[in-house]
Every structure is written in C-alpha cells, then in structure tokens.
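Q: Please design a sequence for this.
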C-alpha cells in the first residue's frame, strides 16, 4: 500500500516509516511488514469486498500449513508468490489454518470456519490461472479464481467494466514499479448447475482418452461471468545490489546470460527486475519453436534483423566456416545494429544445441546484449556453457546457488557458488563462494583485475631481470674467447634470484594496485584491458626481451669501458676481472631495483622494506664474502679478497654505476611518458580522470531506490507445477501431524536469489 503525509503527498517507504500494528491478530506472522493503515481499517470495519478479497487469498491456493506449536504457523508454498499472498491474508485476519483433502480451515477475524473443498481447477501454462470451488459453513457455493490479468479480463461479467478500468490503472502503476501482478475474481454458483457440473467433471477426470481436453472444456465452462474483486502486486525482491551489480558488470563489457529453470514469464520478469531487459531495447527476440526448422528460422530471422550483412557470401565467418567445414572455428565478435535481447525456452534450446544449429545459436546469441534461457535442465545449462567455450575465445564464469547449477559451475572456466537457502552443493563444487550476488563485482572488478595486473607485472619484470642478467654473459663471450667464464662471482649468480631480487617482485605481486577499490568500482571500464589481454601478450613479451637486450648491452659495455686501463686515485690498477665483475653485478642489481620501483603503483611499508632491504643485504653479503676473514677461513670458496672495499671506494666507479642506471632507465621513463601523452590507452584516460577527481572532494554516494518504468505487466508469474491441485484433492501428500493442521511431505521450490514480500 501507499503511505501519504498530512498534505496528501505520497511518501517513500523506508526503515523509519511506521509499520501497521498486527498485534490484534494473535496468529499474525511477526516478520510480515505492511505500511498502509487504511487497508487494516477497512478490514476492521467489516467492509464486504475487502473481506471477500482476503477470503479468496486464504482459500485459492495450494499451500500446505504446518503447525508444530499452537499458533506457530509455517507455510510450505509451491512458489514464494503463493506463500506471500497467503501470509498477507493471514496478517489481515484471514488465517489459513489447516487443510484436508475435503476441507480448508480458515480463522476469519478470530472465528474458525471450515470450508468444504469441492474442486481445484488446476493451473497450467495455457490457462495461466487457478480456481477453487468451496462450500461455506452457511452452505453458499463459490468459485474463487486468480490468474493473469490478460486471461481473467476475458472471463469477467460485463457489470465489472468500471472496476476493471480502475484496476487496469493500478496494474499499470504496479508494473511500472516492477511488481508481479495478479487479478482475483469470484463467482457464486447455483446448486443444481454445480451438481451437474461436478458429475461431468468426475466423468472427465476418470476418462481414459482425452482427459486433459475434457477437463479444460469444463474449466472454461464454469470460469465465466466472474465478478472482479481486485488485483495483487508482489515485489520480486532481489538480493541487495543485484540490479546495480549487473549494470556495473555490463559496463565492464561482460556478457551476461541467464540460465534458469523458471518458466518464461518468471524469467523475463527477473530480467526486467535486474535491469537486464528494458524498454529501450530495439527488440527482445523470443525463440519458442517446437521443431528444429522453426528454431532455425527464428534464429536466422533474429540475426537478419540485427545484422543483415551476416548472410552475405563475403562475410568473414561464412568464408571461414566454408573453409574449415567440420573443423572447429572460433567466432569473432560481431556488432549488431542496435541493442537486442534474446529469450529462448528449454524445449527450443534442445533443438538449438544440436550439431547443425549450435553455430547459428552462438552467432545470434552473441550479438545480443542479454540472453535468457528459461525452463532449462541442469544438463542444458552445462551444454550452453560448453558451447560458448567451444566457439568463442572467451573466459566463462558460472554463478549459481543450487544443486541444479553444479554441472554449469563445473563446466565453466571459473565457478562461483552462492551459499544460501538451497544448500551447499553449489559452494562445494565452486572455485569461489560468497553469500551475496553483489560480491561478484568486487571479485571481478577489484580482486580479479588486481590479480591480473599483478600477475602481468610479475611476469614482465621476471623476464626482464633475467634477460638483463643472462645476456651480459653473451656479450662477455666475445671478450673471453667463449671460454664459458662467468661474468659474475659464482655466489652472486646463486643469490641473484634466490635472495637479491625475490622479495621485491613478491611484494609487488602481492600488494600492487593501480587504483584503489573505490575507483575500480566507479570505473568498470578499467576491466576491459584484461579481457583483451593487453597487459601481457606476445608483443609485450618481445618488448621485455628488447628492453632486456638493451639493458644487458649497457650493463656490460659501460662497466667495461669504465674499467678499461683505469687506475685508482693512489695510482694502483683496478682494471682486473674481479673489479669488473663486482661493478657489473652492482650496476645490474641497482638497475633492476629501480625498474621495479618504476613498475610499482602502490607503495606500502612492505614494498619499501623489500626493495631497500634487498639492496642492503646485497652490500652486506658482498662486503662480508669479499673480506679477509672469509678468505682465510674458506680460501677456495671466496677468491674475491678485498675487491669490494678496493673498487667501491672509487668515485669514478660510482659515476659509471650512475651512468649505467640512467641509460637503462631513461628510455623506459621517456617511452611511458610519450605513450601516455600521444597515444593513451582507455585505461590511461580513466586513470587521468581519477587523478583529476582526486583533486576534488569526493561526491556523496547517492542512495536511490532503483525502479524501472515499463508498460509491460507480469502474466501470472508463479513458479507453479501442473497437477498439484489433483494431488491435494487425493490426499496422497498428507499425513496427520497435529490436532491443528495437516502437513505435506513435498519440498517446495525455492526461487533462486530472492525472497518475496507483498
């Protein structure tokens, strides 16, 4: 209900809004929250249409009650929608208390009434409605019906036209807020007519041939001239942040496909609620062919509308497909001429996954912004994921919360399980697990992106430092007669990767981040370079190799030239192999340390400690190993006696080291600066925006309630199963549980990532 202030203005409902007090009803559900006080007043004033409305909600359903303690009612509903409606009636004073195959017990405003259940006219996908026929304690026969507005409006009595217009306005308003709507109506029956109808109903229900058709005809006959009571609207409440998460992931160029066991109507409603589908789309294609040819034609017609050029012989994919024939091909990304959505049913998907149609399905589906596959089996979920892996050069991530999602989660490259009300099967089969769908954007846009950047930086730096380290030996070979003499001291070679350069690169690969998590979420475009593999590929590897070759030339020839025919300040010569080796390895270590400093975007105490600590350890170990004492104790192992103090005490040596560092680092700094200025990448542009934004005070985060505007209404979006009414009437699903109620033995369907409220 709507809440109005003293001036008659509608106000937004929030946590501070006063709730309706249901304390007058001892059987009310304490978790149920409602805010419109006028409806409660109408119930208390014994308004006849209002009482009839809630009486219908308490009688026309397939819910099973369970009462372990007196007054503590638990409803086992076949769909969450049903449970929400029955709970609403319960709180407003019409408590569904117990059920047997022949009766329904309802406590109406504190008075217990037992209605005789005469027939359940079951729901199916064609009828899109369900009805019950009951006899009241007073002996009145009544048919209560609820269903899709598009269906029930055709069955109403002409006298309901004025109420019908008013109800239509309400339905449009509800649909604009993304609510799931339902129309309810009733009909008073005459005893003679009903006795004749129930006799024919019994004959039809026991017929051996054409039973469904005969029952359908009888249902159509009695469900006529109904009297409209009103409409209900159910909020299909998703977990917090689901629409925003999906919107953010779409901006990061992540294609989102929904694979669900829900029926088409429900799946499309969830699509609209999640902002996957919207009215701004050019068209939402619905593939529901019942034969292989029908599905093929529907897919081709959709593709023709999105990209007519894709049917030309000159099309790249068509040429590739003709050449490769039966070989596997990778389909490149194709751009449609607008924004489209695709909805395909499980029956049609079975044909589309056949060998000759799967390529058509992938091409058509990948042109669409959103794909929703409804009424799919767990196996089909896995087959769809496998299909994308087969024909697209893409990384797939599957996220689910139930046992029916396990095959899909295992098939995808990355599996994510949501721990919730559907058990732990999905979590146990997944690579990552969390409790809320919205955490997915942090997993991908923050931690996933950071991890990718760190891994790429680690690989680039690791290749560079080892190219620079190793290729110095190649240049030295021309001067040593290729005698396999090493440039460096053998202890330096041992400790270079083990001690001197291991911790700085480890610190960078653990802690580095180009921007913090807040900016990563605000600019999801930063995720795109990872999808395109821009930070580490063959070109980047070649650049690392060329940089390593250039650095090795500098690191060999600058120390060589500086040492050639050189004497110390006291006139003694230092142009010997050991002094050259020490100078070359000192230059190398300082250069790679400066390089990792340039690569580090996020400085922490740990990074500082690792880099400065590694350099300090190098000089400490070098002076220790090259000391007189070590030579006297281990003469054969430490031949570089006195080299460190003799060489590193000379100013010209440090000048040569500084020159080597400058020549190695300057081209890198210059190239990065010019590239960012002259040919910036999309991520460079975003980083520039972030730098400018950091100078301004951060804007307050807007807290807005996300609503969609749509002219589309839900057509009975219950997750019902056909035939459940007959099961209740037979009593096979019931066993006595307590003096207050009977309970069913079935397990109700859960509804994925949402819970319901009226």
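A: Design:
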């Amino acid at each position: 209900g709507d809440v109005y202030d003293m001036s008659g203005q509608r106000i937004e409902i929030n946590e501070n809004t006063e709730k309706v007090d249901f304390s007058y009803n001892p059987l009310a559900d304490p978790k149920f929250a409602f805010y419109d006080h006028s409806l409660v007043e109408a119930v208390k004033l014994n308004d006849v249409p209002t009482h009839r409305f809630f009486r219908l909600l308490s009688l026309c359903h397939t819910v099973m009650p369970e009462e372990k303690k007196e007054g503590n009612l638990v409803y086992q509903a076949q769909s969450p929608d049903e449970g929400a409606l029955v709970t609403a009636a319960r709180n407003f004073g019409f408590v569904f208390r117990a059920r047997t195959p022949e009766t329904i017990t309802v406590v109406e405003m504190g008075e217990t009434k037992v209605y005789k259940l005469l027939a359940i006219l079951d729901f199916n996908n064609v009828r899109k409605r369900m009805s019950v026929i009951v006899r009241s304690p007073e002996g009145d026969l009544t048919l209560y019906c609820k269903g899709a507005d598009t269906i029930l409006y055709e069955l109403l009595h002409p006298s309901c036209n004025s109420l019908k217009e008013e109800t239509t306005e309400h339905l449009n308003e509800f649909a604009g807020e993304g609510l799931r709507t339902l129309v309810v109506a009733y009909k008073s029956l005459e005893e003679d007519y009903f006795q004749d109808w129930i006799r024919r109903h019994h004959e039809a229900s026991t017929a051996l041939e054409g039973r469904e058709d005969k029952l359908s005809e009888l249902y159509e006959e009695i469900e006529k001239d109904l009297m409209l009571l009103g409409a209900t609207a159910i909020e299909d409440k998703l977990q917090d942040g689901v629409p925003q998460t999906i919107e953010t992931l779409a901006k990061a160029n992540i294609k989102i496909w929904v694979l669900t066991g829900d029926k088409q109507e429900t799946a499309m409603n969830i699509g609209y609620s999640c902002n996957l589908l919207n009215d701004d789309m050019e068209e939402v294609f619905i593939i529901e062919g019942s034969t292989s040819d029908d599905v093929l034609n529907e897919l081709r017609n959709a593709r023709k509308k999105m990209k007519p050029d894709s049917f030309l012989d000159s099309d790249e994919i068509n040429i590739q497909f003709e050449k490769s024939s039966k070989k596997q091909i990778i389909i490149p990304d194709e751009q449609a001429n607008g924004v489209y959505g695709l909805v395909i049913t499980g029956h049609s998907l079975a044909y589309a996954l056949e060998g000759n149609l799967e390529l058509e399905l992938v091409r058509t589906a990948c042109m669409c912004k959103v794909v929703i596959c409804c009424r799919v089996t767990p196996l089909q979920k896995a087959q769809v994921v496998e299909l994308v892996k087969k024909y697209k050069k893409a990384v797939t991530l599957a996220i689910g919360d139930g046992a029916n999602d396990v095959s899909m989660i295992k098939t995808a490259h990355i599996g994510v399980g949501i721990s919730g009300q559907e058990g732990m099967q999905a979590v146990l089969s997944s690579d990552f697990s969390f409790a809320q769908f919205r955490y997915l954007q942090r997993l991908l846009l923050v931690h996933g992106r950071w991890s990718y950047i760190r891994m790429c930086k680690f690989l680039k730096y690791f290749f560079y430092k080892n190219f620079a380290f190793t290729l110095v030996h190649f240049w030295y070979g021309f001067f040593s007669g290729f005698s396999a003499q090493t440039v460096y001291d053998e202890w330096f070679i041992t400790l270079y990767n083990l001690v001197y350069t291991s911790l700085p690169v480890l610190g960078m690969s653990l802690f580095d981040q180009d921007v913090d998590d807040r900016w990563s979420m605000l600019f999801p475009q930063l995720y795109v370079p990872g999808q395109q593999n821009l930070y580490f590929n063959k070109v980047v590897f070649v650049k690392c190799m060329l940089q390593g070759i250039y650095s090795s030339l500098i690191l060999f020839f600058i120390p060589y030239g500086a040492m050639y025919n050189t004497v110390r300040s006291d006139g003694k010569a230092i142009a010997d192999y050991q002094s050259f080796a020490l100078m070359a390895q000192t230059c190398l270590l300082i250069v790679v340390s400066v390089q990792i400093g340039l690569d580090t975007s996020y400085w922490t105490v740990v990074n500082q400690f690792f880099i400065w600590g590694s350099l300090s350890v190098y000089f400490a170990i070098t002076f220790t190993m090259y000391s007189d004492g070590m030579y006297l104790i281990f003469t054969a192992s430490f031949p570089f006696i006195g080299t460190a103090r003799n060489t590193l005490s000379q100013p010209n040596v440090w000048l040569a080291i500084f020159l080597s560092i400058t020549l190695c680092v300057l081209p890198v700094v210059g190239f990065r600066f010019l590239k960012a200025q002259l040919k910036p990448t999309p991520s460079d542009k975003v980083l520039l925006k972030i730098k400018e934004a950091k100078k301004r005070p951060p804007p307050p985060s807007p807290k807005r309630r996300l609503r969609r505007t749509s002219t589309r209404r839900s057509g009975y979006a219950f997750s019902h199963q056909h035939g459940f009414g007959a099961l209740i009437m037979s009593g096979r699903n019931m066993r006595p549980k307590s003096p207050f109620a009977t309970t069913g033995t079935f397990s109700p369907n859960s509804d994925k990532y949402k819970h319901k409220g009226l």
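Q: Thanks. Anything notable?
A: Residues 494 and 500 are 10 Å apart (CA to CA). The mean pLDDT is 83.
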